[in-house]
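ok new one. same drill as before - structure tokens go in, u give me an amino acid for every spot. 297 of them this time. try not to just spam alanines like last time pls lmao
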């Protein structure tokens, strides 16, 4: 273990800033999962694979000479319609079933997506180079890639737009009504089938935005979707459904945790530390609920 991060203040500042910028991106992915989970009562195991697919859209734009930043516009449009298609083909058959059935269904979708991406794009690790440069802070002691700053800004922008849309638009109000009580909403004339399809599409669109940003900021390959699913799930169970500020804070907290785990344990244990943290959170939640004589639904 290397505790040098605590011995030099600038390294601590570097880790905190990197973690916060990374956590904002995690929060965008998690907000899509929270929205879908709250409305449809579905845990989407394919969440991370939708993110990576969005990343490949931006990457192939980059290969054909288009700046990958345009992927934050193109990817969500494509991913929205793909999300609606997935709902029509698979999710609508399990939306009213037991939660475990939806987990199995989306796990199957995840495996299918991984193999299709491997077949279509290959297993190589790729990056959409944005050429954004870096920003130097504190007498050049802290280095922040501008791609991370861009990703954080776009993530915040899309989150704000989604909140406004959910509050002001007719479909947004229908989604919130369905999340509160789907049966009552249907009696009052809300087309819940349309709401479910739109909700899954919006979640896929958010994954598309996040994937495009990840392809600019980090590397991607077909089999790296699961860690993003785990991160989203962890953020949602800590923050709770429908709690956007909580999702944002949990996302940034997870990002900072990962950066410190990277510095202390090494990069090879970074993802492992995330899985360990998830186990600890689930054990704590189970203990807390058992004391209240409650259970997880």
């Amino acid at each position: 273990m290397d505790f040098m991060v605590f011995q030099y203040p600038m390294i601590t500042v570097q880790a905190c800033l990197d973690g916060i910028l990374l956590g904002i991106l995690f929060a965008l992915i998690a907000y899509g999962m929270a929205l879908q989970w709250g409305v449809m009562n579905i845990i989407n195991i394919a969440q991370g694979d939708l993110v990576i697919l969005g990343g490949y859209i931006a990457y192939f734009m980059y290969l054909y000479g288009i700046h990958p930043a345009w992927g934050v516009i193109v990817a969500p449009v494509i991913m929205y319609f793909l999300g609606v298609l997935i709902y029509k083909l698979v999710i609508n058959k399990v939306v009213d079933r037991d939660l475990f059935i939806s987990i199995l269904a989306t796990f199957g979708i995840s495996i299918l997506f991984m193999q299709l991406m491997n077949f279509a794009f290959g297993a190589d690790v790729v990056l959409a180079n944005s050429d954004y440069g870096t920003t130097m802070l504190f007498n050049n002691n802290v280095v922040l890639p501008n791609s991370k700053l861009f990703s954080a800004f776009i993530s915040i922008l899309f989150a704000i737009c989604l909140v406004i849309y959910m509050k002001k638009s007719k479909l947004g109000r229908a989604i919130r009504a369905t999340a509160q009580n789907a049966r009552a909403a249907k009696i009052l004339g809300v087309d819940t089938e349309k709401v479910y399809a739109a909700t899954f599409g919006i979640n896929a669109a958010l994954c598309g935005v996040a994937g495009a940003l990840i392809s600019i900021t980090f590397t991607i390959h077909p089999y790296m979707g699961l860690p993003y699913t785990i991160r989203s799930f962890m953020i949602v169970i800590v923050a709770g459904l429908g709690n956007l500020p909580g999702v944002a804070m949990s996302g940034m907290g997870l990002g900072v945790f990962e950066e410190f785990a990277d510095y202390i344990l090494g990069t090879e244990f970074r993802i492992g530390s995330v899985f360990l943290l998830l186990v600890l959170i689930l054990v704590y939640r189970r203990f807390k609920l058992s004391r209240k004589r409650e259970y997880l639904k």
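The longest strand covers residues 134-137. and btw The radius of gyration is 19 Å.
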